[in-house]
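ok new one. same drill as before - structure tokens go in, u give me an amino acid for every spot. 282 of them this time. try not to just spam alanines like last time pls lmao
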């Protein structure tokens, strides 16, 4: 089956370059790469690759993740869609493995992600070396090979996943009521479950997550997280992102009960600075 790789970017040209380098080295190259640029300055560019590249400019503020993924999917021509976060480097076998698995199984398929340290994959790199240096995600266990059915829709993650293009559109794509950062991927996983679409974890080739600064908790996305949590609670009768909401509550930013959030104040500049950490996991 033909396969399109889809990625979103905002001001991460170095990460995008390493993602593209991984695709350039793939044993089975994608039929195309679709990049949605969410307002990078300067706009991103991709040059000198042995596959088709299309770059869309999305004229929205912030990080319109749901809208950007949907825009990428509408533009894609492949029968299989491989969504790959821009800070991920695909392993050599990922594209071919995802095309085969999604071609055989009409499912939502997540691939493993291995996390790199601060000095890994900054310039020249070899996949075997990255494998030896990287580590898996503590909360998500993948089989060494083959597939594992996962019944907790909350474990779906959007860093690296594949789905048939027609199935994605049948589901309605990501719900654009979720604006900015947070919960749009969990909602997509829940809607896939409601539609009877299996969630599969794929062993074998996945992607490497490039190290970068992050925030814990993500105070920089405070308004988005609160807004999207309320939307999710209204739809599904439960709260998403409970760890982050708990952190906001402990910091005195919100009052959080079983059925409502009341915002007391926004994070201060000092709180933002104190939450900034160097972390491989994000």
């Amino acid at each position: 089956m033909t396969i399109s790789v889809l990625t979103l970017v905002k001001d991460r040209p170095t990460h995008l370059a390493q993602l593209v380098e991984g695709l350039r080295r793939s044993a089975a190259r994608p039929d195309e790469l679709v990049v949605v640029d969410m307002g990078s300055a300067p706009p991103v560019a991709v040059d000198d690759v042995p596959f088709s590249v299309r770059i869309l400019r999305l004229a929205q503020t912030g990080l319109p993740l749901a809208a950007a993924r949907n825009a990428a999917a509408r533009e894609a021509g492949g029968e299989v869609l491989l969504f790959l976060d821009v800070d991920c480097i695909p392993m050599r076998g990922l594209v071919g493995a995802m095309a085969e698995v999604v071609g055989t199984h009409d499912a939502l398929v997540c691939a493993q992600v291995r996390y790199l340290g601060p000095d890994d994959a900054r310039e020249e790199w070899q996949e075997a070396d990255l494998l030896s240096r990287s580590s898996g995600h503590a909360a998500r266990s993948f089989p060494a090979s083959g597939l594992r059915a996962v019944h907790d829709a909350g474990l779906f993650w959007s860093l690296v996943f594949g789905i048939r293009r027609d199935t994605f559109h049948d589901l309605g794509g990501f719900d654009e009521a979720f604006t900015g950062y947070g919960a749009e991927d969990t909602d997509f996983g829940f809607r896939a479950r409601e539609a009877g679409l299996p969630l599969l974890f794929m062993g074998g080739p996945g992607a490497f997550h490039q190290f970068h600064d992050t925030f814990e908790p993500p105070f920089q996305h405070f308004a988005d997280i609160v807004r999207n949590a309320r939307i999710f609670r209204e739809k599904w009768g439960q709260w998403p992102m409970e760890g982050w909401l708990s952190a906001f509550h402990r910091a005195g930013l919100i009052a959080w009960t079983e059925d409502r959030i009341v915002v007391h104040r926004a994070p201060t500049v000092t709180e933002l600075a104190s939450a900034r950490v160097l972390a491989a996991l994000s």
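The two ends are 32 Å apart (CA to CA). and btw The first strand starts at residue 3 and ends at 9.
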